[in-house]
């Protein structure tokens, strides 16, 4: 028995033929369905200046999702802290925790979640946000802590709300920080799997127990597409391939329908990159994906939670994929 928890990440993408309002409705519908499947948590990303994503105002989307669900935890995957004053973040998430007790998560990242020109427009200062990340994480922890541990400036109503913090990472840097602060660590294996094994090992080896966590807690985010057969899943995954190539081309196009002619759409180099990325994804039938998860754990060590992201054009097929993934995890 692996005792693996299951959760989901959503970038709130726009599907071809839809608009931003439809993307937000899809976001809510997915959350409601995952809640009925007893998913642990549902996180929403932060991205800016991306015409194919509606995840720029992350806190508003989290609140909207909380209002339309009843028990699933909802949070940020993540808030890109260099873009925001920690005081304002604490006020926002403290307010949501007040309205929706014990349902709010705060995942924190040190990247801007956009291109550098947009980042320069977003940031409170032009240079230091990334380097001040450890201190600002500590500042947030204090804002959510007891009042007698705080200074004059306090983030009401965040005081004593203890909103759980999670450190996000796509390299080994954040693994050191999460370990040193004794916080849960979330690795972005869905887009940056290269340093995943090293980062998880570093986090586990260097972990220092804290008031929040007595032992390491590892969440890994992976692309996941589960269907009745391997062939059907691979067909659906051509949408994921097109999403990834769209990013590398700088086109940021809406989520495209699957295709039987992926080689005809992509250049040979792009096709090879897409194949490599799909090889590190959980794509296949339930039995195939079950074996892939077991292999992943054998290679990377035990993890506590799998966070899935699923780029599937047809929403019903996407919901079915998440349903099948839950079946897989429940029977590991």
Automatic annotation (TrEMBL):
SUPFAM superfamilies found in the cross-reference section: Bacterial luciferase-like
Gene Ontology CC annotations of this record: cytosol
Domain Luciferase-like: 19-296
GO MF term (any one): oxidoreductase activity, acting on paired donors, with incorporation or reduction of molecular oxygen
Pfam family, one: Bac_luciferase
Domain of life: Bacteria
Family listed: To bacterial alkanal monooxygenase alpha and beta chains.
Protein name stated in the entry: LLM class flavin-dependent oxidoreductase
Native source species: Staphylococcus equorum
